[in-house]
Specification:
about 250 residues; alpha/beta; 3-stranded antiparallel β-sheet; 9 helices; binds adenosine-5'-triphosphate; binds magnesium ion
């Protein structure tokens, strides 16, 4: 049956999603479909509704006025800008929180090793650097083998070098765990380095839905630069309009 086939290939579906604060419509009829294993980056100006959309998909917005449908898979994980590790639990206990049993602890150890934190299982969160805390948060988000990972600027508070390392790490982790990803970011290059598709949200609606077809994810690459220019233009940053024309042809 078509519906069944769709559910096997779809990780997220929203239909006619509206959310408002007071008389302000922050999400204005969002239809979104993300395929299983697909990596979608969501960019947009500050206040454009990115976190509101992520929270709606995560089902974290019960108190917000709105309508529409959201369908997500059974196992969904979240990562935020701050690690949200519980300060009174050691790193491994944070990672396996809510998952009792020796098998879960073993799996927690394994995922901590994958994020480069082998040997730090018994550390307290405050003993980790900001980057290490985010790596622990990533480990926590992946230990349950999510089918969907929702991330709201997870690298936003990290310095540039740590951020670049985190991009490499995330790519490696995704090759192993293969969840679909919806990543909110301010950083156009981050979106282009990681995503299969970039959505631009503006005034509660998608103004661009762009599939990223890059053989080489190199920021100096000509096609990368064109995508960057197109995305910056869609965010209202002035650029050479001739380049926009070019990229529209290749996308
Ligand atoms: N709980 C709330 N009460 C009232 N208004 C809210 C609330 N949460 C968000 N808003 C408003 O909704 C709009 C969208 O907010 P949202 O947090 O989704 O933006 P964003 O795109 O994530 O921005 P940023 O890039 O700055 O994180 C903003 O104008 C914000 O002020
Ligand atoms: Mg936000």
């Amino acid at each position: 049956m078509a519906t069944h086939a769709r559910e096997l290939t779809t990780a997220v579906r929203t239909a006619g999603l509206h959310r408002s604060f007071g008389d302000r419509d922050v999400l204005d009829g969002i239809d979104l479909e993300i395929a299983r294993g697909e990596f979608v980056a969501l960019i947009g100006r500050s206040g454009s509704g990115k976190s509101t959309l992520l929270r709606a998909v995560a089902g974290l917005d019960d108190s917000v006025a709105g309508s529409g449908e959201v369908w997500v898979p059974e196992r969904v994980s979240l990562v935020f800008q701050d690690s949200r590790l519980l300060p009174w639990l050691r790193v491994l206990d944070n990672v396996v929180l809510g998952q009792p049993g020796a098998a879960a602890r073993e799996r927690g150890r394994q995922v901590l090793a994958e994020v480069g934190l082998a040997g730090r299982e018994r550390a307290w969160p405050h003993e980790l650097s900001g980057g290490e805390q985010q790596r622990a948060a990533l480990a926590r988000s992946l230990v349950s083998e999510p089918q969907l990972l929702l991330a709201d600027e997870p690298f936003g508070a990290l310095d540039a070098l740590t951020r670049i390392r985190m991009h490499g790490l995330l790519r490696t982790l995704l090759r192993v765990h293969r969840p679909a990803v919806l990543l909110v970011t301010h950083d156009v290059d981050e979106a282009l380095l990681l995503a299969d598709r970039v959505l631009v949200i503006d005034d509660g609606r998608f103004s661009l839905d762009l599939r990223i077809d890059l053989a080489d994810r190199n920021p100096a690459d000509r096609d990368f630069v064109r995508y960057r220019e197109l995305l910056l233009a869609s965010l209202g940053v002035d650029i050479d309009t001739a380049s926009i024309h070019d990229i529209q042809e290749i996308s």
